[in-house]
TrEMBL record:
This is N-acetyltransferase domain-containing protein. Residues 43-206 form the N-acetyltransferase domain. It comes from the Eukaryota. InterPro entries: Acyl_CoA_acyltransferase, GNAT_dom, Ribosomal_N-acetyltransferase. GO terms for molecular function: protein N-terminal-serine acetyltransferase activity; protein-N-terminal-alanine acetyltransferase activity.
Length: 246
């Protein structure tokens, strides 16, 4: 029986190029391996409002409740095809390469023909390489290409958003390199208790705030729309995907 991703758009299982492959993430199949890898790198959670997780059960619960069961969200595992599997099962059964991270679509809307690229996590050995630009680029092609596109048929969406912490400079640079345009900086999220100055905006709260122990987070909202995509952004994204790491 096919796995139910419960996503509002068709989930493609052929999102790959010569460098990376995106595999739809099955929580209770891929979750344990992903947790083991990410748990070795707690700094990955430095600029985000979620994680780290105390154990595998909590990690799987969060993925299941807030991603898999949300019709607007779907997660993909990123495999680096330029690094062959280790041959000891650590890259996942049938993998085309080495597991390098994860990302997905979130806050998707068939009514408004839009989505957001989020939950991007790239493991440290694969940062500042081709992995992030190629993984995001593949999701952009699938989201913004028209269904009639000959080489890479897509969903024909009109807008892809990118929301990140104002202090997460690498995330902002990646988005802008892939032709996302800044729209606004706003105070949008309240990080959970325990997330310190590295996540918050550091601004004092007013007296009587219901969550006074949790400072606010300033988020940068960027977007890439279909007209910019068709007007040259697609080719610039392809150039960024083909670029060799320095």
């Amino acid at each position: 029986q096919p796995y139910d991703f419960d996503f509002c758009f068709p989930v493609s299982d052929v999102l790959e190029n010569a460098r990376v492959k995106l595999v739809p993430f099955i929580v209770f199949s891929n979750g344990s391996f992903n947790y083991c890898l990410v748990s070795y790198h707690p700094k990955l959670y430095k600029s985000v409002t979620w994680g780290p997780f105390p154990d595998l059960k909590t990690h799987e619960y969060v993925l299941e409740k807030y991603l898999r069961k949300e019709a607007g969200s779907v997660l993909f595992a990123i495999f680096d095809k330029t690094r062959p599997p280790a041959g000891n099962g650590e890259s996942g059964e049938g993998a085309a390469g080495t597991l390098a991270g994860a990302l997905g679509y979130i806050n998707s809307s068939p009514k408004n023909l839009c989505t957001e690229i989020g939950t991007l996590v790239v493991l440290p050995p694969f940062q500042r390489t081709h992995v992030a630009s190629n993984a995001v680029g593949l999701l952009l092609h699938y989201a913004l290409n028209s269904p009639s596109h000959l080489a890479f048929p897509g969903l024909g969406l009109r807008r892809v958003a990118w929301l990140t912490n104002r202090v997460n400079t690498p995330s902002i640079r990646l988005a802008e390199r892939l032709r996302f345009q800044r729209e606004v900086v706003r105070s949008k999220k309240v990080p959970p208790e325990g997330k310190g100055a590295e996540v918050s905006n550091g601004k004092a709260l007013r007296d009587g705030d219901p969550r006074a122990q949790c400072l606010g987070r300033d988020s940068v909202l960027l977007s890439l729309c279909w007209d910019d995509w068709e007007g040259g952004a697609r080719e610039q994204v392809d150039t960024a995907m083909a670029r060799k790491a320095q």
